[in-house]
User: What shape does this take?
Amino acid sequence: MSRLALEGVSFSRGARAVLRGVDLRVEPGEVLVLAGRNGVGKTTLVRLATRLIPPSEGRILLDGRPLPQLRRREIARAIAVVPQETRIPFPFSVTEVALMGRAPHLGPLGFESRADAERAARALEQVGIAELADRSVLDLSGGEQQLAVIARAICQDAPILLLDEPTAHLDVGRRIAVLDRVRALAEEGRAVLVVSHDLGLTARYADRVALLADGRVAAQGSPDEVLRPEPLRQAFGVEAEILRTSEGAPVVVPLGRGVANSQGPSPE
Assistant: This one.
């Protein structure tokens, strides 16, 4: 299985430094949750990791090879992405959206096989929308469209999965179902990065948590190590109390006494 590593990665937009010297790795068999307030560069980091934009400094390695040395098709076979926002302007069926994940694996003529169709059907079942297979995505709710995009990423069968706020538009039941599937993919050996604001829920599924603050990794480690008052104060500017579930997982409870920050969030 593959691993992804960022080494000393910085990115600037004009005169503003978005990311500064970020060191981060995503290992096979683990779920890494990346969290931080709006505008600290989480989505930018995902775009850098898929070579959509180049870093200002540092390097990004896929199995030890710098991304610029790899062809787009190689990257697409290795890394599947669920972006924060996906707009599908045409009335593709839900099955057709899932089948888009097979594109990096198709031959020169680009025709899907029966095996590809079966893989797409299985992905839809895994995210709980098999009954929507023939529906147009334009007729779906925002949450259902998000599930179709997640199915597309699963159908890609890439060893690395990058999910940017994958459960933002989902109800609690579907959030848990998606994160259960994410956990299962990691246990199969995939390397999974999840960008999320839902620290209470994702802490139950994460092997490691990384907090971004001021463009840097402020804390990184197990949920027990990172989800503590001081790292959360640094990353989010809030006071928080840490409770425990019956299973022992940490639960973050903001206390409503925010730490003043003279600079508001900027768009990522």
Notes: The longest helix spans residues 172-187. The CA atoms of residues 39 and 266 lie 5 Å apart. The domain at 1-70+190-268 is CATH 3.40.50.300 (Rossmann fold).
